[in-house]
Amino acid sequence: MQEVCDGSPQYLRSLSAEKAAEEPARFSDDFPGLSDQFYLPQQLGKVGRNQHSSPLRISGPVNMWLHYDVMANVLCQIVGKKVLVLYPPIDAVHFKIPPGSSSSPMTVFHLSERGSVVYPRHHIRAVLNEGDVLYIPPLWLHSASPLDNLSVSINVFFRNLSTGYTAGRDVYGNRDLQPYENGRRNVEKIVKSMESLPNDVASTYLARLGEELIEKGKNLRQKPD
Fold it and tell me: pTM for the full model?
């Protein structure tokens, strides 16, 4: 901790104090001596009622990798100042995210200039000061860059959907939704069903199916929820 305060480029995230490998981190349970020092305003009652986890984050001058979270969350900046850049879910195809992963290998901030974005696209840039709270919608890619040597924040992740979450243990609350996981398994079945065909024929049909899926996705975006 002292190293981080001294400017060491480290990133620390709290885990469950009792069962780190089984239970999600929750600030009030993991730091009972500080639980009365952090609470959400009344206007965010829905967040508290549907809370999944609330990890404490402490970092030095180091950028957070570009990723998305499956659950919605509110980021509460406690100490220091940092800038976040966010991209809408539709831009995920441009950031080389591997299938089944939620993180991109790409860097969106200049390494030599804090807070300066190198890959703009359709981004939203938000500067968080101490006491600021930022709502991050599910599946929105985001990355953070500190503007001070020390940053302390708490994320409160919450379930904003009534259905679709993957069953079973999810310590970090970031397992992709069940329909997506089912879809990936169905893709494997489709590919396997083409194995008896010549490669050029199979690849043609798979490409056509891919175009059909893309078109259906576009149609869904045009429909109201």
Answer: 0.89
